[in-house]
DNA sequence: CTGTATCCAAACCGATACTG
DNA sequence: CAGTATCGGTTTGGATACAG
């Protein structure tokens, strides 16, 4: 098959909602993790797979493609003998990092108190 | 049917990852919105439906139940003549707010930067 | 090494109808 | 008012195999 024809169905979102707007960039189970690991510097496909062991190649590939399409990350093919590809955050992608940092810090606090909620 | 038996299958997550840990609380398209609107104070079921017009009763109900089960929100039945129910953030839920705030503020900057929407 | 194709299971969502 | 039941459709994600 040449190219999957996108359905372009209206997404179930609140119009003009910044929260939904931003979540659409982070949508998908592993997307925040990908951005998070990329925030430490450029990474290759295989490195990201090692960073996030539970992710499948298919999903990682899909997330990467979507993030590139949205302008969150950049994809650069390195002309090495075994061809390698480097992904890195764009300026737009860097803007997402503080939000993810906030999520991580909440997650850490959640784990520390993990025993208590009703 | 009496009670849906939960499958309790191991979720596709990285163990001990604070980011995934926190994202599991926010899973589902409308969850962040629910928490966000609740951060303004306690709300009733119908009020939340009005806040998020595109959400269906079924999904709102499901999200609410899950958030209660996870300890993010509290559910209190008010003994009024037409019975009403109030939902509010727990202490754990309040901890999520800064993260969502960060996401919202990124979303706002994203919109200003693109400036492509009416 | 860097992906894509295919199959399949689960989660998600909306509309409608119905209960307490 | 505050949900739940059910049906149907869409989306997501994982496993495996395979291609450039």
Mean pLDDT of chain A: 83
State the end-to-end distance of chain A: 51 Å
Strand order of the largest sheet of chain A: 1-3-2
Radius of gyration of chain A: 16 Å
Approximate shape of chain A: globular
Q: What series of H and E elements makes up the topology of chain A?
A: HHEHHEEH
Query: What's the total helix number of chain A?
Result: 5
Oligomeric status: homodimer
Measured by residues with Cβ under 8 Å of the partner chain's Cβ, the largest interface is: A-B, 40 and 42 residues
Biggest pleated sheet of chain A: 3 strands, antiparallel
Structural class of chain A: mainly alpha
**Beta-strand percentage range of chain A:** 5-15%
Helix content of chain A: 40-55%
Protein topology:
2 copies of one chain form a homodimer.
Chain A: H1 18-26, H2 31-38, E1 43-44, H3 45-51, H4 57-69, E2 73-78, E3 84-89, H5 91-112
Antiparallel strand pairs in A: 1-3, 2-3
The structure holds a DNA duplex (20 and 20 nucleotides).
Report on the architecture of this protein.
2 copies of one chain form a homodimer. Chain A is built from 5 helices and 3 strands. Chain A has helices spanning 18-26, 31-38, 45-51, 57-69, 91-112, and strands spanning 43-44, 73-78, 84-89. In chain A, strands 1-3-2 form a 3-stranded antiparallel β-sheet. Residues 1-12 of chain A have low confidence and may be disordered. The A-B interface holds A 12-14, 16-23, 25-26, 29, 32-33, 36, 52-54, 92, 95-96, 98-111, 113, 117-118 and B 12-14, 16-23, 25, 29, 32-33, 36, 52-54, 70-71, 74, 90, 92, 95-96, 98-111, 113, 117. Chain B binds a DNA duplex (20 and 20 nucleotides) through helix 4.
């Amino acid at each position: 098959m040449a190219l999957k024809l996108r359905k372009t169905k209206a997404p179930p979102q609140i119009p003009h909602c910044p929260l939904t707007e931003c979540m659409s960039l982070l949508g998908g189970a592993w997307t925040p993790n990908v951005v998070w690991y990329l925030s430490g510097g450029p990474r290759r496909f295989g490195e990201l797979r090692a960073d996030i062991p539970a992710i499948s190649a298919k999903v990682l590939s899909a997330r990467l493609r979507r993030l590139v399409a949205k302008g969150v990350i950049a994809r650069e093919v390195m002309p090495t003998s075994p061809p390698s590809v480097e992904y890195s955050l764009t300026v737009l992608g860097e803007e997402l990092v503080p939000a993810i940092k906030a999520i991580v810090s909440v997650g850490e606090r959640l784990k520390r108190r993990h025993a208590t909620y009703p």
